[in-house]
Amino acid sequence: MKVSIDAIKQLRDMTCSSVAHCKKALEEAKGDINKAAVILRKQGLEIAAKKSERVAKEGRIEAYVHPGNKIGVLVEVNCESDFVARNSDFCQFTKDLSMQIAACNPSYLKREDVPEDVLGAEKTPDEFYKNNCLLEQPFVKDPSISIKDYLGSIVAKLGENILIRRFIRYKIGE
User: Fold this and answer.
1) I want to staple 36 with a disulfide (CB 3.0 to 4.6 A). Which of 25, 93, 113, 170 is the partner?
2) 68, 44 contact by CB (below 8 A)
């Protein structure tokens, strides 16, 4: 199937994937941009899983203070090289992440971090994970994807293992 350049450009703008990956995904999805975006997300998660064993000891600490100076966030995100740590896409990811934490106030990074006694008291564990685990939360700028999906797309785009190591959120009075 012949894929139009406009469709490739639109998918590339949506996903930040390479032109070649966008073209291949569009061909596989028979021109459907939404299906192609889902294909690229899955590929990004597969790439992220392959790279997860690699050591990530570089990175950056992002600080965000919400207007009004009542909420502040510090988040540490690690990658494999200082070159990627200075990349504009990586920096944007860390900024987006810090704003996500400020807006949604997650208590845990991932599902595995939730203590059994806390989870045992919940009637709907999946809903609890979605509300309280950063990686499970819908991304505030695009609720159709989760933070985990956004992380996978950045790993696929930059080609390095990227880890959200830790975060802390401060709020006046808490």
Assistant:
1) 25
2) no
Sign of the CA dihedral 136, 73, 92, 104? Answer: positive
Residue 20 in contact with residue 43, Cβ under 8 Å?
no
- The CA distances from residue 74 to 21, 108, 111, 171, in Å, are 34, 14, 21, 12
- When the pLDDT of each residue in the chain is averaged and rounded to a whole number, the result is 87
Polymer length of the chain? 174
Angle between helices 33-51 and 147-158 (to 10 degrees): 70
The 3 state secondary structure assigned to 103-151 is: HHCCCECCHHHCCHHHHHCCCCHHHHHHHHEHHHCEECCEEEEEHHHHH
172 DSSP assignment: T
Owner of token pair 């012949």: 2
The burial class, CB within 10 Å (0-12 / 13-18 / 19+), for 10 is middle
Spatial distance between the Cα atoms of 53 and 33, rounded to a whole number of angstroms: 32
Report the distance separating Cα 116 and Cα 71, nearest Å. 29
Torsion angle of C-alpha atoms 30, 33, 34, 37, degrees rounded to 10? 100
